[in-house]
Write a structure and sequence with these properties.
The structure is a single chain. By secondary structure, this protein is an alpha/beta fold. The chain has two domains: about 70 residues, no CATH class; about 110 residues, putative n-type atp pyrophosphatase, domain 2 (Alpha-Beta Complex). The chain is about 35% helix and about 25% strand. The strands form four sheets. The protein has a four-stranded antiparallel sheet with strand order 6-5-9-8, with no helix packed on it. The two termini are about 25 Å apart.
């Protein structure tokens, strides 16, 4: 996130979260009064999976602070993911749930072709292609039209983490990134 912030020229605000509602509300309160923010915008897809929980959470905070709240991504999650890639954003899968997605996807950059492959795989496994349901993967954007440079991931180690609840089990494989850096964009 630090490199994303640098390449966009936007300051990064890091919040340590122990008590999710209280800590995030405190950070938003500080941003409102110290930096004059007027609203909250999320990248969630409205009405899909975990976004339902996130929207009620952030909407409540926004209302409490008198801030605008926007969740501009809406519609079919596959269409939203395709649009993200079609406009030139390149997410990299930096965490995969190996119960559903093969470890070969870890570190893979999403482009129009890989999004089609991912859709087929997710349909077979019964999970959401955008992972809004929180089951399949997590990603980070390394290239975007509004980035001044691209982000390169150098050294990383594969790490495993298990999560268990009453109704589900997740076996996460994630990139423990040791080295990443900015590099000049490649001409398209």
């Amino acid at each position: 996130m630090d490199l994303q912030s640098q390449t966009m020229g936007i300051p990064l605000q890091v919040v340590r979260v122990k008590k999710p509602y209280e800590d995030i509300l405190g950070a938003l309160t500080n941003l409102k009064y110290e930096q004059g923010i007027q609203g909250i915008v999320t990248g969630d897809i409205a009405g899909a999976g975990c976004a339902v929980i996130h929207s009620s959470y952030y909407e409540s905070m926004a209302k409490q602070l008198g801030l605008a709240f926007m969740m501009p991504n809406e519609g079919n999650t596959y269409d939203v993911l395709k649009e993200v890639v079609d406009i030139g954003l390149r997410p990299v899968l930096n965490c995969v749930n190996t119960n559903f997605i093969d470890e070969g996807w870890l570190g893979r950059k999403l482009d129009p072709e890989s999004v089609k492959e991912l859709k087929k795989l997710c349909d077979e496994k019964g999970i959401d292609v955008s992972s809004e349901d929180g089951q399949g993967y997590h990603s980070t954007v390394v290239e975007a039209p509004f980035f001044k440079e691209s982000i390169a991931i150098g050294k990383y180690k594969n790490k495993k983490k298990k999560e268990k609840a009453k109704n589900w089990k997740r076996n996460w494989l994630y990139m423990d990134i040791k080295e990443c850096y900015l590099e000049p964009k490649q001409p398209s």
